């Protein structure tokens, strides 16, 4: 029986039925765009996070773009961000006309830190874009201090960190603004594309609420030149159901992660995820590292066990981004991560027998 890297399961049991029920009700509501479901979800998500507002948008990429614009970032500005991230983070900066300035991640947490960001700050820098990679929040206090002393903005890419905490605060509620993606496989996922801009800055929220809907403050009154990046009612209805289970889903991810930690410690040259201080990790991705990554991935594949690599080619070595002017060797930490990282199956509903199969196969690989 093949075990995929990721699969949607009915966890907690009954969730699928609740989602179907919510979809049916939203269909029956006959109001499909920017209706009561979206409004309710926005309120519930903001209140869950402890932020002032959440504005539903079309996807995580748009959330990043709209948050950047709302923070006043545009042509001629520089934004410091980690080179080890999903490509959307970089694209969003380019989309608003700013220059992405890439920084190495910390070699233990794989996240951007104030120490790594500071040397890249110039008079043109307008923001730091911190990505809470794999479900672990960046060390935000130091980043906030840096942003404050430099009078620049701090934006969170929280697309992998729904429900993750740092010093008791939720990812997405700490910086000047945050972008969330609700892509189906994220910890809080819709049944299609969806995203949100979260902020406690009234200007950012007001901007996002207009910009996502052609700049309208009222019907046919455009206060600014906006786009169409609306969250639709069906997705909002689904997200409302799943938000109620987010803590339970994350607890299950944390439990599964603990099993991997226990079973895989001291196995070959494996490096397991590093717990940063003051962080509650939500394991969007369970990343392990080994010098024998490709062989281990092939070994697992031969036994029907799916894995993934986040991310195989760092941003600065992607063909589309050569214009940024980097070359191999410029970011040794990110390049080492790309060469050695492997993500193991970890999703709510993964059974004990399935996880044991993964554990045994990994151990057997290192016993050869
Ligand atoms: C998923 C993701 C995004 C983009 O979200 P989409 O909804 O797919 O546009 C942005 N940043 C990170 C770190 C992500 O993981």
Automatic annotation (TrEMBL):
Example of a GO MF term: transaminase activity
Keywords per UniProt: Pyridoxal phosphate
InterPro entries recorded: DegT/StrS_aminotransferase, PyrdxlP-dep_Trfase, PyrdxlP-dep_Trfase_major, PyrdxlP-dep_Trfase_small
CDD domains for the chain: AHBA_syn (cd00616)
Pfam families in the cross-refs: DegT_DnrJ_EryC1 (PF01041)
SUPFAM superfamilies (UniProt xref): PLP-dependent transferases
Top-level taxon in the UniProt lineage: Bacteria
Residues with PTM N6-(pyridoxal phosphate)lysine: 186
Residue positions of the active site: 186
GO biological process: polysaccharide biosynthetic process
UniProt similarity note: Belongs to the DegT/DnrJ/EryC1 family.
Protein name: dTDP-4-amino-4,6-dideoxygalactose transaminase
Organism of this sequence: Pontibacter chinhatensis
Organismal lineage: Bacteria, Pseudomonadati, Bacteroidota, Cytophagia, Cytophagales
């Amino acid at each position: 029986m093949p075990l995929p890297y990721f699969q949607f399961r009915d966890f907690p049991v009954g969730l699928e039925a609740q989602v179907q029920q919510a979809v049916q009700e939203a269909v029956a509501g006959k109001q499909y765009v920017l209706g009561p479901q979206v409004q309710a979800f926005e309120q519930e998500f903001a209140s869950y996070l402890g932020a002032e507002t959440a504005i539903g948008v079309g996807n995580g990429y748009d959330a990043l773009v709209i948050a950047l614009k709302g923070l006043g970032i545009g042509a001629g500005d520089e934004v410091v961000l980690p080179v080890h991230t999903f490509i959307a983070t970089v694209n969003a900066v380019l989309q608003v006309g700013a220059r992405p300035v890439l920084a190495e991640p910390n070699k233990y947490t794989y996240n951007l830190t104030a120490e790594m960001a500071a040397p890249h700050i110039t008079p043109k820098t307008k923001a730091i874009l911190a990505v809470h990679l794999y479900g672990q929040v960046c060390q935000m206090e130091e980043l906030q201090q840096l942003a404050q002393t430099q009078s620049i903005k701090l934006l969170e890419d929280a697309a992998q960190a729904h429900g993750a905490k740092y010093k008791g605060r939720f990812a997405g509620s700490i910086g000047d603004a945050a972008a969330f993606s609700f892509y189906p496989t994220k910890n809080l996922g819709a049944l299609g594309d969806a995203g949100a801009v979260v902020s406690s800055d009234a200007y950012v929220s007001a901007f996002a609420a207009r910009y996502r809907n052609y700049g309208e403050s009222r019907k046919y009154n455009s206060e600014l030149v906006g786009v169409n990046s609306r969250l639709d009612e069906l997705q909002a209805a689904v997200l409302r159901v799943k938000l109620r289970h987010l803590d339970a889903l994350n607890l299950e991810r944390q439990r599964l992660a603990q099993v991997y930690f226990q079973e895989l410690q001291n196995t070959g040259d494996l490096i397991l995820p590093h717990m940063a201080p003051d962080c509650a990790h939500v394991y969007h991705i369970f990343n392990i590292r080994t010098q024998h990554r490709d062989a281990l991935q092939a070994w697992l594949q031969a036994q029907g066990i799916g894995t993934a690599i986040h991310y195989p080619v760092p941003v600065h070595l992607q063909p589309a981004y050569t214009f940024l002017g980097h070359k191999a060797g410029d970011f040794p930490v990110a390049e080492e991560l790309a060469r050695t990282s492997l993500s193991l199956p970890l999703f709510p509903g993964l059974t004990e027998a399935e996880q044991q199969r993964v554990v045994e196969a990994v151990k057997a690989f290192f016993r050869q």
